[in-house]
TrEMBL record:
This is Calcipressin-like protein. Residues 131-142 have a biased composition (Acidic residues). Residues 113-122, 162-171 have a biased composition (Basic and acidic residues). GO terms for biological process: calcium-mediated signaling. One of its GO terms (cellular component) is nucleus. Residues 145-155 have a biased composition (Polar residues). Belongs to the RCAN family. Residues 99-186 are annotated as: Disordered. InterPro entries: Calcipressin. Coiled coil: none annotated. It comes from Zygosaccharomyces rouxii. GO terms for molecular function: calcium-dependent protein serine/threonine phosphatase regulator activity.
Length: 186
């Protein structure tokens, strides 16, 4: 299908960096007004002509280009080059208006009263509460366990830890190195 726009590519990808050979060939062809749109990230160049006939004349001469290939695009490209009398049917850039940047308020605001809004620190810290708990009410059984709280939801008991002197078995020997794992490399 013939359109007024051609896509120029080449195998080596040099067209993405140097459009000079294509531009010189287009100038020598004498077809008329054209627009080149260089797309280096796609390694392509679009050639927009005034009409489909101009594009087909370029396609008939594409053998002179060497390693540069030309293909038609799927749709025609519209714009001032194709229809100079028509208004562009696309969105225009909005007119430049003055925009005011609104900064956040200073932190804290100038009318902030530190003495009125801030509370003094607590007199009793959380570490001081341990001395106020009364363990005298807890029950102690014959194994030395103390019951701190007993309710239908559950019971909190404290069991005293064994000391090294009360152990009946010998402690494990200390090793200089940790034991080897099967995942360690040798």
């Amino acid at each position: 299908m013939e359109t007024n726009t051609l896509i120029a590519t080449n195998n080596s990808g040099s067209l993405a960096h140097d459009v000079g050979p294509l531009r010189n060939w287009l100038l020598k062809s004498g077809i008329g007004e054209m627009q080149l749109i260089h797309l280096p990230s796609f390694k392509r160049v679009l050639v927009v002509t005034e009409s489909k006939e101009a594009a087909s004349q370029l396609m008939s001469k594409k053998g002179e280009l060497g390693d540069i290939r030309l293909r038609y695009t799927l749709t025609d490209t519209e714009g001032a080059l194709v229809n100079p009398d028509e208004e562009m049917g696309r969105l225009q850039v909005p007119p430049h208006k003055r925009t005011f940047l609104i900064s956040p308020p200073t932190s804290p605001p100038p009318e902030f009263d530190y003495s009125r809004c801030e509370e003094p620190p607590d007199r009793v810290g959380p570490t001081d509460l341990g001395g106020e708990i009364d363990f005298e009410e807890s029950e102690t059984d014959n194994e030395g366990q103390r019951t701190l709280l007993s309710s239908s939801a559950g019971t909190i008991t404290i069991k005293p830890a064994e000391t090294l002197r009360d152990r009946k078995q010998e402690p494990l020997p200390h090793t200089a190195l940790p034991p080897k794992s099967i995942f360690d490399e040798e």
